[in-house]
Amino acid sequence: MTSKRMLVILPTWVGDCVMATPVLRALRSAFPDAHILAGVGGGIDTLLAGSEWCNAVLRVRFKGTLGPFTDASLLRACRADTIVLLPNSFRTALGVRFAGATRRIGYARDGRGILLTHTIAPPTEKPFSAVDYYAQLVEKAFNITVSDRRVELIVTADETRKALSLLAGVSGAPLVLNPGANNPLKRWSAENFAKVARISMKQGQSVVVTGGPKERELVDAVVKLAPGAINLIERGVDLGGLKGVLARAACLLTNDTGPRHIAAALSTPVVTLFGPTDHRWTTLVHVQERLLLAEPFLTHDTFADQHPNACLMERIAVKDAVEAIRSIARTS
């Protein structure tokens, strides 16, 4: 299968979008002369800034009652002959159905096979890494090999300038703390993040705390409990600025959420805290990362998702987080 104009619809979550970067890199390698567009949700298109794998980034939504039909007209204007759907949703497939592409490729699930021209059977193994999940789709669809499965992002000059402004007055490469997560059950407590901050600052390490727009209260709580830590939300951090900050960080301590994947994709050391979400769903390869599991002794055929009470985030000790940071952080 070949393509002259290809549109790749990416996942809407930050972490999942990052985990799709090996697919973009592989498609560019397989189709060096094709015009490749990346369709992303509004607000996270910044993730792909600086990338050479796609010719352009297209903002899509597929939300609301009319979303699939509204976006379909936008997609038709792209004149893509091939559309690859990485998300699993029926709604996304419905929007793509009316986009005019000759080939519409995606996993056959959620009853959407009738909307696609080329369906791939999803893997049955569980847990199955999202990186491998996306890679397997394009491998089977295009008969190519996604041999390099490293996640990767580029920091632009503008994002570097934003980072320098956000880190004004910060000494050396900072320890970045990310206490938020979309699911509250995946969050280590603000008190524990603050304890790590206080210990780190006592050892001479600068500390900054980041979060999304809806996590201001959580970030404020950490900073209040750790005087001297810098609140990046107060300084106006956005996704591009966060990329620049993480690229310059000594280490990131984070729950299992988007900034983890951004830091890993920028070759920044990461300590990731896992509770009632199995780490095997989001395995990253060739990254500088230490995983701290709330329950590290589950059997191989048991998922953390199935045992939320045994995998409470508060079972992760502060001293273990401090030691993990010490073992992996890069020095200024």
Question: What distinguishing features does this structure have?
Answer:
2 domains; 6-stranded parallel β-sheet; alpha/beta; 11 helices; Rossmann fold; 332 residues
Q: Rg to the nearest angstrom?
A: 20 Å
- The domain tally reads 2
Low-confidence stretches: none
Query: Can you count the beta strands?
Result: 12
Count of alpha and pi helical runs: 11
The ordered string of helix (H) and strand (E) elements is: EHHEEHEHEEHHEHEHEHEHEEH
Sheet with the most strands? 6 strands, parallel
Output the structural class.
alpha/beta
CATH homologous superfamily assignment of the largest domain = Glycogen Phosphorylase B
Indicate the percent of residues in helices: 25-40%
Q: What is the typical, i.e. mean, pLDDT?
A: 94
Named at the architecture level, the CATH assignment of the largest domain is: 3-Layer(aba) Sandwich
Approximate strand percentage: 15-25%
Q: What's the shape?
A: globular
Report the span from N to C terminus.
48 Å
Spatial strand sequence of the major β-sheet: 3-2-1-4-5-6
CATH topology of the largest domain: Rossmann fold
> What's the CATH class label of the largest domain?
Alpha Beta
